[in-house]
Amino acid sequence: MNASTTRRAVLIGAAAAAAALKTGAASASGPVTHIVRIKRFAFVPEQIKVNVGDTIQWINEDLAPHTATADDFEWDTGELVQNQVAKVVVTDDMQTSYFCVFHPHMKGRIVRV
Ligand SMILES: [Cu+2]
């Protein structure tokens, strides 16, 4: 899964950049972090409303491993084991429908406002 590993590296870099951006930016209009819990084989909440520049953070609360993966595989958290966290920064053109590669019935949606 070399391609997947590369994508993951890119995502980690983006998350670090966003974290740096947030530091000292306490403005209500600045980027925010949206938390999506993965529990009982579902994304909670299933749909989130975000702005470009915001960060989405998934945390896997299940025993089973999960992913949050764009429907077109453009972005991917990679495998998340229990209590593992992954962050993705919202971009202008990102795929907004996603699923879990291990359990394709698990679906989530990102709505840009
Ligand atoms: Cu899953």
Provide structural commentary:
By secondary structure, the chain is an alpha/beta fold. It folds into 2 domains: 1-28; 31-112, Cupredoxins -  blue copper proteins (Immunoglobulin-like, Sandwich). Helix content is 19%, strand content 32%. The chain has one helix at residues 2-22, and strands at 33-39, 42-44, 47-50, 55-60, 69-70, 85-89, 97-99, 107-112. The protein has a 4-stranded mixed β-sheet with strand order 2-1-4-6. The chain is globular and about 35 Å long. 22% of the residues are buried. Mean pLDDT is 85; it is low at 1-6 and 13-27. The site of copper (II) ion has 5 residues, from loops. Copper (II) ion binds next to loops.
Summed up:
This protein folds into 2 domains: 1-28; 31-112, Immunoglobulin-like, CATH 2.60.40. The chain has 1 helix and 8 strands, in the order αββββββββ.
